[in-house]
Amino acid sequence: MSPLPTRIYGNVSVPDTPLITAALSFSKAHSTPTVHNHMIRSWLFGFILASKIPPLSNRDQEIHSLAAILHDVGLDPNPTSSLVSTDKCFEVDSANAALTFLSQSSEVDEKDWDTNRKQLLWDAIALHALPHIALHKQPEVVATSLGIAVDLVGPEGPFSKGLMTWGEYEGVVKEVPRLGMKNEFGEVMCDICKRKPMASVGSVAGEWGEKYVEGFPPEGMRILEVLEGGLEMLG
């Protein structure tokens, strides 16, 4: 693949293509300012880390960019949003929404987006909150998950591998502020558990639900309870 044009954003060199610009607009239109900024920082942090991890150097940077920029659009706050299902976890909604974006964007050249590239984009988004799986997948999936994790736990957390400095982190946050991320993120996770309890069991949102949402998960629907019930019945 030919090198993509680049620009500097938050002191980070990132690809600059019409499709990425369109994805930024789509992300902004389907997110709160806080969640949108989280997705942008995740993109920038992922590029910082990927530049220091040799196995990630040959990843498809456009897929990585779109995955990071769109990874939470399944949290669209619009109550009538077509991107939000009633029966799927938000990670899957976001992955499906990214494919919807591709199908609708005038910036997509179909010959550049075969089934494999679309599947890789879907995987990078759907698995982003499961680092125990994502970090063993393709470079695009790894880089997406790492950038998101750093935005949530910081440059000294378990996912940055000591490769990001506080100066790099603060340079991004200065350009793309957190806007009360701590409080809003927890509120959004709990709201999902209230609106889609069955889809949230076993997910990252479900972790918040178990701690903060009364009556979550629905009785008998913890994964352990389901498995134990099946094993008890089947022997």
List keywords for this structure.
single chain, 235 residues, mainly alpha, two-stranded antiparallel ribbon, 12 helices
Summarize the topology:
Layout: E1 6-9, E2 12-15, H1 18-29, H2 33-50, H3 61-70, H4 90-104, H5 115-126, H6 131-134, H7 139-153, H8 166-175, H9 181-195, H10 197-200, H11 204-212, H12 223-234
Antiparallel strand pairs: 1-2
* Assembly state: single chain
Order of helices and strands: EEHHHHHHHHHHHH
The largest sheet has its strands arranged as: 1-2
Mean pLDDT: 93
Integer-rounded radius of gyration: 18 Å
- The proportion of residues in beta strands is under 5%
Number of helices: 12
The stretches of 5 or more residues where confidence is low (pLDDT under 50) are none
**The biggest beta sheet, please?**
2 strands, antiparallel
Q: Termini, distance in Å? A: 54 Å
Described by the principal axes of the CA atoms, the overall outline is globular
Which range best describes the helical content: under 10%, 10-25%, 25-40%, 40-55%, 55-70% or over 70%?
55-70%
Question: How many strands?
Answer: 2
Quickly give the structural class.
Answer: mainly alpha
Question: What would you say this structure looks like, in words?
Answer:
- With 235 residues, the protein is mostly helical.
- 58% of the residues lie in helices and 3% in strands.
- The chain is built from 12 helices and 2 strands.
- The protein has helices at residues 18-29, 33-50, 61-70, 90-104, 115-126, 131-134, 139-153, 166-175, 181-195, 197-200, 204-212, 223-234, and strands spanning 6-9, 12-15.
- Strands 1-2 form a two-stranded antiparallel sheet.
- Strand 1 and strand 2 form a beta hairpin.
- Helix 4 (90-104) runs antiparallel to helix 5 (115-126).
- The protein is globular and about 55 Å long.
